[in-house]
Protein backbone atom coordinates (compact mmCIF):
# COMPACT_ATOMS: atom_id res chain seq x y z
CA UNK A 1 0.00 0.00 0.00
CA UNK A 2 1.28 3.43 -0.92
CA UNK A 3 1.62 5.78 2.09
CA UNK A 4 -0.09 9.15 2.11
CA UNK A 5 2.98 10.88 3.53
CA UNK A 6 6.69 10.16 3.28
CA UNK A 7 9.06 11.57 5.89
CA UNK A 8 12.76 11.21 5.25
CA UNK A 9 15.88 12.11 7.13
CA UNK A 10 18.64 13.70 5.05
CA UNK A 11 22.22 12.88 6.05
CA UNK A 12 22.94 9.17 5.78
CA UNK A 13 19.46 8.62 4.37
CA UNK A 14 18.17 10.78 1.50
CA UNK A 15 21.39 12.60 0.63
CA UNK A 16 24.42 10.96 -0.88
CA UNK A 17 27.57 10.92 1.30
CA UNK A 18 28.79 14.01 -0.57
CA UNK A 19 25.65 15.89 0.49
CA UNK A 20 23.86 16.03 -2.86
CA UNK A 21 20.50 14.66 -4.01
CA UNK A 22 20.83 11.96 -6.65
CA UNK A 23 18.75 11.96 -9.80
CA UNK A 24 16.95 8.83 -8.64
CA UNK A 25 16.00 10.33 -5.28
CA UNK A 26 14.90 13.57 -6.93
CA UNK A 27 12.68 11.64 -9.38
CA UNK A 28 11.22 9.64 -6.52
CA UNK A 29 10.17 12.78 -4.66
CA UNK A 30 8.58 14.29 -7.75
CA UNK A 31 6.87 11.00 -8.54
CA UNK A 32 5.39 10.85 -5.05
CA UNK A 33 4.17 14.44 -5.27
CA UNK A 34 2.62 13.75 -8.69
CA UNK A 35 0.68 10.88 -7.11
CA UNK A 36 -0.63 13.15 -4.34
CA UNK A 37 1.70 11.82 -1.63
CA UNK A 38 3.06 14.40 0.82
CA UNK A 39 6.84 14.50 1.25
CA UNK A 40 8.45 15.92 4.38
CA UNK A 41 12.16 16.37 4.99
CA UNK A 42 12.90 15.68 8.67
CA UNK A 43 16.44 16.56 9.63
CA UNK A 44 18.79 17.77 12.30
CA UNK A 45 20.00 20.42 9.87
CA UNK A 46 19.15 24.08 10.43
CA UNK A 47 17.41 26.12 7.71
CA UNK A 48 20.76 27.52 6.54
CA UNK A 49 21.97 24.05 5.55
CA UNK A 50 19.11 23.12 3.24
CA UNK A 51 20.49 24.13 -0.16
CA UNK A 52 20.47 20.56 -1.56
CA UNK A 53 16.69 20.43 -1.07
CA UNK A 54 16.16 24.00 -2.25
CA UNK A 55 17.98 23.08 -5.48
CA UNK A 56 15.22 20.57 -6.27
CA UNK A 57 12.92 23.51 -7.06
CA UNK A 58 9.86 21.87 -5.55
CA UNK A 59 6.62 23.91 -5.41
CA UNK A 60 6.27 22.97 -1.75
CA UNK A 61 8.94 21.54 0.55
CA UNK A 62 7.82 21.02 4.17
CA UNK A 63 10.81 20.69 6.47
CA UNK A 64 11.07 19.57 10.08
CA UNK A 65 14.43 20.98 11.08
CA UNK A 66 16.79 21.00 14.03
CA UNK A 67 15.49 17.60 15.17
CA UNK A 68 11.92 18.83 15.48
CA UNK A 69 12.42 22.34 16.86
CA UNK A 70 11.12 24.10 13.74
CA UNK A 71 8.70 23.38 10.92
CA UNK A 72 8.68 25.49 7.78
CA UNK A 73 8.19 25.35 4.03
CA UNK A 74 11.54 25.70 2.32
CA UNK A 75 9.90 26.64 -0.99
CA UNK A 76 7.91 29.58 0.39
CA UNK A 77 9.96 30.50 3.46
CA UNK A 78 6.87 30.32 5.68
CA UNK A 79 7.61 29.23 9.26
CA UNK A 80 4.74 27.27 10.78
CA UNK A 81 6.05 26.37 14.26
CA UNK A 82 9.08 26.96 16.47
CA UNK A 83 9.89 25.31 19.80
CA UNK A 84 12.88 27.14 21.22
CA UNK A 85 14.97 26.68 24.36
CA UNK A 86 14.71 29.00 27.37
CA UNK A 87 18.01 30.95 27.57
CA UNK A 88 18.04 30.46 31.35
CA UNK A 89 18.10 26.70 30.82
CA UNK A 90 20.99 27.05 28.40
CA UNK A 91 22.97 29.12 30.89
CA UNK A 92 22.39 26.54 33.60
CA UNK A 93 23.30 23.72 31.24
CA UNK A 94 26.56 25.41 30.30
CA UNK A 95 27.52 26.01 33.91
CA UNK A 96 26.64 22.59 35.29
CA UNK A 97 27.91 20.45 32.42
CA UNK A 98 31.37 21.96 32.75
CA UNK A 99 31.45 20.95 36.40
CA UNK A 100 31.27 17.29 35.40
CA UNK A 101 32.81 17.40 31.91
CA UNK A 102 35.81 19.75 31.77
CA UNK A 103 36.70 20.95 28.30
CA UNK A 104 33.17 20.86 26.94
CA UNK A 105 32.26 23.63 24.49
CA UNK A 106 28.79 24.71 23.35
CA UNK A 107 27.32 25.88 20.09
CA UNK A 108 23.91 27.61 19.80
CA UNK A 109 21.87 27.11 16.65
CA UNK A 110 19.34 29.75 15.65
CA UNK A 111 17.29 29.71 12.50
CA UNK A 112 19.67 31.91 10.55
CA UNK A 113 22.92 31.85 12.52
CA UNK A 114 25.26 29.76 14.66
CA UNK A 115 27.08 31.01 17.73
CA UNK A 116 29.85 29.06 19.38
CA UNK A 117 32.22 29.32 22.31
CA UNK A 118 35.97 29.74 21.85
CA UNK A 119 37.52 26.37 21.16
CA UNK A 120 34.41 24.90 19.54
CA UNK A 121 35.80 25.30 16.01
CA UNK A 122 39.44 25.01 15.06
CA UNK A 123 39.21 27.96 12.69
CA UNK A 124 36.48 30.58 12.20
CA UNK A 125 34.24 30.04 9.14
CA UNK A 126 34.61 32.48 6.30
CA UNK A 127 30.89 32.57 5.50
CA UNK A 128 28.33 34.87 7.17
CA UNK A 129 26.14 33.73 10.05
CA UNK A 130 28.80 32.48 12.47
CA UNK A 131 29.80 34.16 15.72
CA UNK A 132 32.38 33.21 18.34
CA UNK A 133 31.79 34.59 21.85
CA UNK A 134 31.42 33.56 25.50
CA UNK A 135 28.20 31.74 26.29
CA UNK A 136 26.67 34.67 28.17
CA UNK A 137 27.00 36.82 25.05
CA UNK A 138 25.67 34.10 22.75
CA UNK A 139 22.45 33.91 24.78
CA UNK A 140 21.44 37.36 23.52
CA UNK A 141 19.54 37.14 20.24
CA UNK A 142 16.67 35.30 18.62
CA UNK A 143 15.20 31.92 19.57
CA UNK A 144 17.72 29.11 20.06
CA UNK A 145 16.54 25.95 18.32
CA UNK A 146 19.18 23.57 19.61
CA UNK A 147 22.38 23.52 21.63
CA UNK A 148 25.31 21.41 20.49
CA UNK A 149 27.53 20.06 23.27
CA UNK A 150 30.96 19.05 22.06
CA UNK A 151 33.68 17.10 23.83
CA UNK A 152 37.01 15.56 22.86
CA UNK A 153 37.80 14.28 26.34
CA UNK A 154 35.06 11.73 27.02
CA UNK A 155 33.33 8.94 25.09
CA UNK A 156 29.73 9.35 24.00
CA UNK A 157 28.21 7.28 26.82
CA UNK A 158 29.95 9.41 29.46
CA UNK A 159 28.80 12.64 27.82
CA UNK A 160 25.21 11.40 27.61
CA UNK A 161 25.21 10.26 31.24
CA UNK A 162 26.48 13.62 32.41
CA UNK A 163 24.02 15.57 30.28
CA UNK A 164 21.07 13.48 31.46
CA UNK A 165 21.97 14.27 35.05
CA UNK A 166 22.31 17.96 34.26
CA UNK A 167 19.32 18.38 31.95
CA UNK A 168 16.85 16.17 33.80
CA UNK A 169 13.44 16.38 32.15
CA UNK A 170 13.77 20.02 31.15
CA UNK A 171 15.64 19.33 27.91
CA UNK A 172 15.75 16.65 25.21
CA UNK A 173 18.96 14.93 24.16
CA UNK A 174 19.75 13.28 20.87
CA UNK A 175 22.71 12.52 18.65
CA UNK A 176 23.55 11.32 15.17
CA UNK A 177 26.79 9.42 15.67
CA UNK A 178 27.68 5.79 16.32
CA UNK A 179 29.73 6.56 19.39
CA UNK A 180 33.29 7.64 19.95
CA UNK A 181 36.24 6.88 22.16
CA UNK A 182 38.07 9.33 24.35
CA UNK A 183 40.00 11.77 22.16
CA UNK A 184 37.51 11.67 19.30
CA UNK A 185 34.85 14.30 18.70
CA UNK A 186 31.58 13.66 20.50
CA UNK A 187 28.58 15.85 19.67
CA UNK A 188 25.25 15.72 21.50
CA UNK A 189 22.33 17.87 20.38
CA UNK A 190 20.04 19.41 22.99
CA UNK A 191 16.51 20.64 22.34
CA UNK A 192 13.61 21.94 24.37
CA UNK A 193 11.55 19.48 26.41
CA UNK A 194 9.44 17.23 24.20
CA UNK A 195 11.21 18.17 20.99
CA UNK A 196 11.88 15.39 18.50
CA UNK A 197 11.07 14.67 14.88
CA UNK A 198 8.08 12.49 15.75
CA UNK A 199 6.33 15.11 17.87
CA UNK A 200 6.57 17.77 15.18
CA UNK A 201 5.65 15.30 12.43
CA UNK A 202 2.57 14.16 14.34
CA UNK A 203 1.37 17.74 14.73
CA UNK A 204 1.94 18.42 11.04
CA UNK A 205 0.09 15.26 10.05
CA UNK A 206 -2.84 16.33 12.21
CA UNK A 207 -3.16 19.51 10.12
CA UNK A 208 -3.48 17.28 7.05
CA UNK A 209 -5.97 14.90 8.62
CA UNK A 210 -3.41 12.10 8.68
CA UNK A 211 -2.20 9.81 11.44
CA UNK A 212 0.77 7.50 12.01
CA UNK A 213 -0.75 4.75 9.89
CA UNK A 214 -0.60 7.00 6.84
CA UNK A 215 3.13 7.66 7.19
CA UNK A 216 6.26 5.96 5.91
CA UNK A 217 9.50 7.23 7.46
CA UNK A 218 13.15 6.75 6.53
CA UNK A 219 16.08 7.26 8.92
CA UNK A 220 19.43 6.00 10.08
CA UNK A 221 20.44 7.47 13.45
CA UNK A 222 19.26 7.86 17.07
CA UNK A 223 17.75 11.27 16.27
CA UNK A 224 15.35 9.35 13.98
CA UNK A 225 14.34 6.84 16.65
CA UNK A 226 11.10 8.51 17.76
CA UNK A 227 9.99 9.22 14.19
CA UNK A 228 10.67 5.65 13.06
CA UNK A 229 8.88 4.28 16.12
CA UNK A 230 5.84 6.50 15.53
CA UNK A 231 5.38 6.01 11.79
CA UNK A 232 3.15 3.24 10.54
CA UNK A 233 5.92 2.07 8.23
CA UNK A 234 9.55 2.55 9.23
CA UNK A 235 12.53 2.03 6.95
CA UNK A 236 16.02 1.90 8.46
CA UNK A 237 19.08 2.62 6.37
CA UNK A 238 22.11 0.34 6.39
CA UNK A 239 24.24 -0.16 8.33
CA UNK A 240 21.59 -0.34 11.03
CA UNK A 241 22.45 1.63 14.17
CA UNK A 242 22.27 -0.59 17.29
CA UNK A 243 19.67 1.69 18.90
CA UNK A 244 17.39 1.11 15.91
CA UNK A 245 17.47 -2.66 16.25
CA UNK A 246 14.04 -4.23 15.92
CA UNK A 247 12.43 -1.14 14.40
CA UNK A 248 10.73 -1.34 11.01
CA UNK A 249 12.33 -2.95 8.02
CA UNK A 250 15.79 -2.60 6.54
CA UNK A 251 16.33 -0.64 3.34
CA UNK A 252 18.33 -2.90 1.03
CA UNK A 253 20.51 -0.17 -0.43
CA UNK A 254 22.52 2.52 1.35
CA UNK A 255 22.25 6.27 0.84
CA UNK A 256 25.08 6.08 -1.69
CA UNK A 257 22.98 3.59 -3.67
CA UNK A 258 19.75 5.63 -3.66
CA UNK A 259 18.04 3.36 -1.13
CA UNK A 260 15.27 5.85 -0.35
CA UNK A 261 14.49 6.73 -3.94
CA UNK A 262 14.51 3.15 -5.16
CA UNK A 263 12.22 2.06 -2.35
CA UNK A 264 9.73 4.83 -3.12
CA UNK A 265 9.74 4.12 -6.85
CA UNK A 266 9.12 0.44 -6.20
CA UNK A 267 5.88 1.34 -4.41
CA UNK A 268 4.55 2.93 -7.56
CA UNK A 269 5.92 0.42 -10.03
CA UNK A 270 2.73 -1.62 -10.15
CA UNK A 271 0.29 1.29 -10.11
CA UNK A 272 -1.85 1.00 -13.25
CA UNK A 273 -2.04 4.20 -15.21
CA UNK A 274 0.66 5.78 -13.08
CA UNK A 275 2.55 8.78 -14.38
CA UNK A 276 5.69 6.81 -13.51
CA UNK A 277 5.90 4.87 -16.75
CA UNK A 278 9.57 4.39 -17.48
CA UNK A 279 10.76 5.94 -14.24
CA UNK A 280 11.79 2.64 -12.69
CA UNK A 281 13.62 1.63 -15.84
CA UNK A 282 15.53 4.90 -15.80
CA UNK A 283 16.32 4.56 -12.09
CA UNK A 284 17.90 1.19 -12.75
CA UNK A 285 20.38 2.89 -15.05
CA UNK A 286 21.66 5.35 -12.42
Structural write-up:
The chain is α/β, with parallel strands linked by helices. It has 2 domains: 5-82 and 196-283, Rossmann fold (3-Layer(aba) Sandwich); 87-192, Hypothetical Protein, Haloacid Dehalogenase-like Hydrolase, Chain: A, domain 2. The protein has 10 helices and 14 strands. The protein has helices at residues 10-14, 23-34, 51-54, 87-100, 135-138, 156-167, 197-208, 225-230, 259-268, 279-283; strands at residues 5-8, 38-42, 62-65, 70-73, 79-82, 105-110, 114-116, 130-132, 144-151, 171-174, 186-192, 215-219, 233-236, 249-250. The strands form 2 sheets. It has an 8-stranded mixed beta sheet with strand order 5-4-3-2-1-12-13-14. Strands 8-7-6-9-11-10 form a 6-stranded mixed beta sheet, with helices on one face. A hairpin with a 3-residue loop joins strand 6 (105-110) and strand 7. Helix 2 runs parallel beside helix 9 and helix 4 crosses helix 6. The protein is globular, with a radius of gyration of 19 Å. The two termini are 26 Å apart. Mean pLDDT is 92; it is low at 272-286.
